[in-house]
């Protein structure tokens, strides 16, 4: 399963023959950033008040090197917590002792002059047994600093829970609705929020439909159903279609904030069995991207190999789009991914550039998250 594969993701080994530059640098001042991949933290020392000082490790995909943001204070509430989700650069953290939850902008406010924000969340109550901590992904309607922000959590099972952190004392669960509709194959679908339509969206089984919820949670839990009609499918050999049918597939709906243009991404990963008794492994076979066009007859999804200046970032955080021209060094018409491999997928020629592990990077880490551009 996709989640179990990347929970302990291992970076490809460093290939010294390919390294011609220094793969490590420090952040010492604030600047508008490119998207970064969060690699983890390194503990430096503990403080008497229970907090500690750590270095934050990031991967810069434009320079293919690791960055270290030094001497970041982690408050006591986060030192005993683990990150279980990410959206809009904010992380959701779960306390290992009492399972309490909070949202923090820890990784999007790494500047020395920034003030850390932490917002408590109600404890999650699973509709299905043993599902409370099995979070698939998280989406947010806006910055959690906004009073009307809605946080949505998609669990590995069919459960979807939503709340307004500033006014709700408990989560609103809509997992019962999904169960009543017998939607058994939503485990690999990722939740997203559409700013254009002010709705949360979840791709249906196979990515052939969409389910959506508006922000009036207490008035209407029932999702709207949107059938998708596909056009201009790629011309592939029958053998390739058959192989794709055997692949593990995940679906991601993403929206470009500046224009509201939406894309449906289907990610195909092929399973291989290891000869070294380490079980099975997955590698990316291909991506398919469909551009949404809303017509009076319904929603049409047109296959495309050209998304222009856009690049898409997919990880365990909420998927997002960035205009390549807004961040120096990004490659347009590409998908930056981590999970079934780690690299850049070129939509025009279907080639993959695999990232190599930079010197000094951890050999493995849990739940890698892309962080959107911010000021750190």
Describe the protein in words:
The chain is mainly beta and 376 residues long. The protein has four helices and 28 strands. An eight-stranded mixed beta sheet has the order 14-15-16-17-21-20-19-18, with helices on one face. Strand 15 and strand 16 (209-213) form a beta hairpin. The chain is globular and about 65 Å long. It starts with a helix and ends in a 5-residue tail after the last strand. The model is unreliable at 1-7, 14-25 and 27-31 (pLDDT under 50).
Q: What's the overall geometry?
A: globular
Largest sheet: 8 strands, mixed
Q: Give the strand content.
A: 35-45%
Task: Summarize model confidence as the mean pLDDT.
Answer: 83
Roughly how many Å is the radius of gyration?
20 Å
Structural class: mainly beta
Parts with pLDDT < 50 across at least 5 consecutive residues: 1-7, 14-25, 27-31
Descriptive tags:
376 residues, disordered N terminus, 5-stranded mixed beta sheet, single chain, mainly beta
Produce the secondary structure layout.
Blueprint: H1 2-6, E1 9-10, E2 24-26, E3 36-46, E4 52-60, E5 65-74, H2 76-79, E6 81-87, E7 90-95, E8 101-104, E9 118-121, E10 135-140, E11 151-155, E12 160-163, E13 172-173, H3 175-180, E14 192-194, E15 199-203, E16 209-213, E17 224-231, H4 238-246, E18 248-255, E19 262-273, E20 280-295, E21 298-304, E22 310-314, E23 320-323, E24 334-339, E25 341-346, E26 352-354, E27 364-365, E28 369-371
Parallel strand pairs: 2-5, 17-21, 22-24
Antiparallel strand pairs: 1-27, 3-4, 3-28, 4-5, 6-7, 7-8, 8-9, 10-11, 11-12, 12-13, 14-15, 15-16, 16-17, 18-19, 19-20, 20-21, 22-23, 24-25, 25-26
């Amino acid at each position: 399963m996709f989640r179990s594969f990347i929970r302990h993701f291992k970076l490809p080994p460093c290939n010294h023959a390919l390294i011609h530059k220094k793969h490590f640098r420090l952040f010492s001042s604030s600047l508008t950033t490119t998207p970064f991949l969060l690699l983890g933290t390194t503990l430096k020392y503990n403080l008497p008040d229970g907090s500690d000082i750590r270095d934050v490790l990031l991967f810069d995909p434009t320079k293919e090197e690791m960055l270290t943001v030094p001497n970041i204070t982690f408050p006591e509430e986060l030192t005993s917590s683990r990150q279980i989700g990410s959206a809009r650069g904010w992380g959701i953290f779960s306390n290992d002792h009492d399972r309490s939850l909070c949202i923090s902008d820890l990784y999007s406010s790494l500047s020395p002059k920034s003030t850390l924000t932490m917002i408590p969340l109600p404890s999650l109550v699973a509709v299905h047994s043993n599902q409370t901590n099995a979070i698939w992904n998280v989406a947010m309607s806006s910055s959690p600093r906004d009073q009307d922000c809605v946080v949505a959590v998609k669990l590995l099972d069919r459960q979807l829970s939503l709340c307004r952190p500033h006014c709700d004392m408990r989560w609103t669960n809509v997992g019962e609705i999904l169960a009543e509709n017998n939607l058994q194959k939503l485990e690999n679908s990722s939740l997203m929020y559409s700013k254009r339509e002010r709705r949360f969206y979840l791709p249906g089984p196979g990515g052939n439909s969409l389910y959506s919820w508006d922000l009036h949670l207490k008035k209407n839990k029932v999702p709207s159903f949107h059938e998708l009609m596909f056009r201009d499918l790629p011309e592939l050999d029958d053998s390739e279609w058959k192989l794709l049918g055997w692949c593990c597939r995940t679906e991601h709906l993403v929206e470009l904030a500046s224009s509201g243009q939406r894309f449906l991404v289907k990610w195909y990963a092929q399973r291989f069995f290891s000869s070294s008794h380490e079980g099975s492994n997955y590698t990316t076979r291909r991506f398919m991207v469909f551009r949404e066009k809303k017509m009076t007859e319904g929603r049409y999804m047109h296959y495309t190999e050209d998304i222009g200046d856009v690049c898409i970032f997919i990880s365990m955080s909420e998927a997002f789009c960035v205009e390549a021209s807004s961040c120096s060094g990004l490659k347009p018409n590409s998908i930056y991914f981590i999970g079934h491999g780690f690299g850049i997928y070129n939509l025009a020629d279907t080639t993959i550039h695999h990232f190599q592990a930079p010197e000094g990077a951890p050999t493995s880490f849990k739940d890698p998250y892309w962080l959107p551009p911010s000021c750190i």
